[in-house]
Fold:
Amino acid sequence: MTRNMKKLALLASLLAIFGPLGALAAPKASNPKPFVIPEIKSWQGSQGDFVPAASTRIVCAGDEALLRVARQLSDDWAELFGPRMEVTTGRAAKGDIVLSLKADKQLGEEGYAIRTTDRVAVTAPTAEGLYWATRTLLQIAEQTPDRRLPCGSMRDWPDYALRGLMIDCGRKFIPMPFLRDWVKIMAYYKMNALQIHLNDNGFKQYYGNDWDKTYAAFRLESETFPGLAARDGSYSKREFVELQKLAEERFVEIIPEIDAPAHTLAFSHYKPELGSKEYGMDHMDLFNPETYRFLDALFKEYLEGDEPVFRGRTVHIGTDEYSNKDPEVVEKFRAFTDRYIRYVEGFGKQAAVWGSLTHAAGKTPVKVDDVVMFAWSNGYADPKAMKELGYKLVSIPDGYLYIVPAAGYYYDYLNTRMLYEKWTPANINGVQFEERDPAILGGMFAVWNDHCGNGISTRDIHDRLFPALQTLSVKMWSGAEAATLPFEAFDERRTLLSEAPGVNLAGRIGTGPGKVYEAREVAAGSRTPHREIGYGYRVEFDLDCAEEKPGTVLFRSPDAVVYLADPVRGMLGFARDGYLNTFSWRPLPGEHVRIAIEGDNRATRLFVDGRLVDELDIRDLWFNEGKARMRDVRTLAFPLAEAGDFRSRVTNLEVHRLK
Structure:
């Protein structure tokens, strides 16, 4: 055989084994970077996938901190996907998820590394880093039906140590279950600080310009001052401690805030001599010794002892928006701020304050070392000047990150496109710092419930907070290096992720528009598989009307009630968050009608036999002889958990998701 014939024979053999030369030459594509919120910093893809099986175990050393993370992963996996993974110690095998601690300076306190081959190897310098890694695994797994994880290696760590949310519970009571769910949501997106604003008050122009009638609340049980906690909603010490323990398990810090010496009308309602006759009863009198005796005792109640009510490292003492009209008052305010920084530190805590020292410029020294300042308004605290003084700053710029629901100022919904494309914690209301400047601890966004009594529900608050959190998680974790996807792609893909394992405050049913539940007949007292359906829904049913007593419930959940006959006028209506809304229609005995109720984040609509009968949208309420306007929001996340005790016949129930 000639040399050329041998070459041809060899080529034929290779073709028979490997196929055409083009196929032999073309390498397989590497796996693209998985979509995770916040975005993974470093990814090196390989080929293939790890598909969890019934035999997949979570393996770690016997260290209690690691076992806690492993058990949490197992619980959350079961909550999201059904099967529970066994948690074990010892030698790992093919098909396992392995958690281990490993020193790595680049990863810092919160970073982690994951290498996925025939097993998933998760390493981190700390248990906290391992926990964040498990959030990454869960988010990737929930995006495919078989929970597959792409093979490859990732490394991830945050650029900012503090990533959080401040929620105003003073002007609107936020029930504890909502706060507990939000701890879980924050943890799922690697946000690690929840500030709870425990006291505040409304604006007196909505209450006849009378401080005595103006709404005010303090939300935490006090044994030192019985009756101080608001009657319309407050937290017991025990449940507040339990909230902090839940957060600690998920590496989220609860930062309690008692805001003083302004925003303190709840205190002067309780003890009138605490209020300032000159600057308003929502200002404490800084020249009255009783002010200091009261606040000393209040802070002490929550800070003293081996097991204090305020468990975390940081306690926020407020110190914002006090009058600066009189230089003597400014010096007194500065002395007040310094006093309570040191007072809180005396209990072993770190003090946090709202930035106010540009507004309150003066000579009285205010402690700087180890004090965290929340930089919210450049006019109240110039961030560059505060850095020069030596404060550690939390970037919470009001011009970018303040939500005030339905108020007509600041943001109703944050501008997530702008934030995703342009903002990082290094930008404080247009003052630009270098990325990862050591003076910037991180960022927070806030929801302020300024307009007490404006109809806003916790579901409305959630509707505003959740897309903002998903967006800001990206920017607070990685700053300018984040957001490599175009905003449109990010905004579409973020909706594919859960709020958190076991959490569905948005009331999502199904994955897209269409009928998501139906029942041929709804018997009184019966239950459905769903707690509620959130905004963008249509619920319709046939109703054979009977005589109903006032207060007869059609459907209820722990959050809302729909009435066949409301308790006041016997109209079709609904109640949630302490607000009763009624349609201009009532069922009459003997009628047969087809009812449909539609709801979104702006209005709730009633259709009878296909005709729009009433629309409860956002309306204007006027106060103070027409000088003060408040928006009244009449939305409803439709409750489905349980049918009421009605006499009418309800048939052909259909629940539709509209978007």
The longest strand covers residues 42-50.
